[in-house]
Amino acid sequence: MGICGPAVLFGAVVAVSFLYPLTRFMMLPLMPDWAPLPGLGAASGLGLSSGALWNTVRLSTEAGLLVIPPGLLAGFLLERRRWRGAGLLSAVLWGIFLMPSYLLTMGWQIVVAAPFLADGAAGRLLYGEAGIVALLTLKGLAFSSVAARAGWHAVGADMDAASRVHVPAAWRRAWLTLRLLLPVSGSIFTIQVVAASQDFGIAATLGAQAHMPLVIYAIYQDLSTVPLDFTRAARLSWVLVLLALAALVVQAVLARRSVMAGGGHRHRPGVAPCGRGMTVLAWSLTVGILLAGGGVPLLALAAQAMGDTGTGDALLIDGEGWRGIGLSLRYAFVSAVFAVMLAALILGGRMRAGGSGRVVARMLLWLTSANMAVPGVILGAAYVIAFNGRVLSLYGTPALLILAYTASHLPIAIRFLDAPFAHLHRGLGEAARVHGVSLVRRVERIYLPLLLRRLTWAWGMVFVTLFFELPLSEILYPAGSAPLGVKLLSLDDTLHYGAEARLALVAMGICLAVTAAAIILVPRLVVGSGPERMGGAGNARTAPSLEQENA
C-alpha cells in the first residue's frame, strides 16, 4: 500500500459504498432503464408531491427555530456554569440522541391513548403538526447543545473582559453576546432542518397515523407499495438532497463567520457558579427534557408492557421477537466493528507524512459533511438498484444489510474518532519505526493502549444506533429475517402496543447490557494485559504518563 495506501483504501470504500450506488439511483429520472426490473423505472408526471414537500419544509423550519433557545441554554449551562446537575443534563441529552425516534413516538402514543386524553386536546396536539414538531425538536437537542457549547467557548474570556470594560450596561452586554452567537444559532438551525427533514422514525409512525405526508416517508412508500416506482422515489430524493446541500452550504458559511467573529487565540472562558435563579432554570430545563424525552415515554412503555396481559402467555415475547433481537445483535455487532476498523485505518493513514494524508483529510471532510445529505431511505434504495444485477448480486442477503449498516455509520465513527487520532503525536510511530518496531507491534504497544477506550466508545455508539436501525432495515432486510426495527414498526402499525412495548424494553435492556460490558471490559482486558507483555509493572506505570503527554 505504501504512501498512497490510505487514499486508495478510502477511495475504494467511497466508490463501492456511496458513489456507485447513489449515482445509479439518483440518475434514474434521466436513465429509467437502470431500474432493477423492467417497467419499474417508468413514472407519470414529475412525481413530486407538493403536500409532502410543503409539510417537510414547514415542519423542519419550525423545529429548527424552536430548538435554538433550549439548545443555547443547554450549551451555556454545560460550558459556562458550574452546578450539580451538569452531568445529568449531558447524560439526558445523549440518551435522547441515542434513543430511536420511533420508540420515543410510541411512548407518547401510549400516553395519549388513555381514554381521557385520546379524544381531548392532548390527542389532537400529538396527532397534528404540534406533536410532530415537538418530537423533532426533542431529537435535535443533543446536536444543538453541542454546537452551542462550541459557540459559547468561542466567546472567550478576553471577549467577556472587554465587554465589561467598554459596555457598562448589562442588557447591552447580553445583546452583544447574542449577536456574537448569531452564526452559531444559524448553524443550529440548518443542522436541525436537515435532521428533521430526514427523520424516518417520526414520519413512519406519527406522521403516517396523523395522515400528514412527508417526503422521507413518501420515498419509502414508492419503494415498498405496489406498483413500485423507483423513478418517483429518485425525484423525491433529489428534493431532500438539494435541501440538505443548501443547508450545509449555509452552515459552512456561518461556521466561518463564527470563527472570524471569535478571533484567533482565545482564553478559555471562566466557569462561574450558578445563582439561585439560574439554578432553578437549569434544573427546570433538565427535568423537563428528562420527562419529555425519556421518563414519560419509558414509563408508558413499562406500564403498557405490564398492563396489557391478555390471556395465557401474553407477557412472553414470541419466537419472532427473539429472532429479531438476535439478528439485530449480530448485524449491529459486525457492522459496528467494520465501521470502527475502517475509520481507524483511514484516520491512521492520515498520520502519514506526504500528500496522501492531506488528500485523505480533504476527503474525510467531504464524506462526513455529505453524509448528512443522504438519509437511510435514499441509501437503501440506491443499494437495491446497485446490488441487484449480475455483477454484484447481493440483494436479499445479510451481507448487503451489513454493508449498508457499515457505510451509513462510517462517517459517524470517523467524526467520533477524529479528535483522538489528531491528538496522537506522529513522533511516536516514527521513533518506534527508527528502532525497528514492526507495524503490528507499534499498533499493539503504542496506538492500541492509547486509543482503545475511544475505539470502544465509538463502537458502542455505532452499535446502539444500528441495533434499532429502521429505514435501511425496512428496505434491505432478507426475506424471513426481519431485524428488530422492522418487527417493532410492524407491531406499531397493527396497534399491538403491549407486545411492542415488551419487545422494545427487553431489547433496550439487552442492548445496554452488551454495550456496557464491551465499554467496561474490553479496555481492561486488552490494555490491562498489554503492559505485562511489554515488561511488567515498570511499563505499566509509564503508560498513563504517555497518554497524558499525547493529550
UniProtKB/TrEMBL annotation:
Residues 53-251, 325-518 form the ABC transmembrane type-1 domain. GO terms for cellular component: plasma membrane. InterPro entries: MetI-like, MetI-like_sf. It comes from the Bacteria. It is found in: Cell inner membrane. Gene3D superfamilies: MetI-like. Keywords: Cell inner membrane, Cell membrane, Membrane, Transmembrane, Transmembrane helix, Transport. GO terms for biological process: transmembrane transport. The chain crosses the membrane at residues 6-22, 63-79, 91-118, 130-155, 176-195, 236-259, 280-307, 327-347, 359-386, 392-417, 451-468, 503-527. SUPFAM superfamilies: MetI-like. This is Iron ABC transporter permease. It comes from Gluconacetobacter tumulicola.
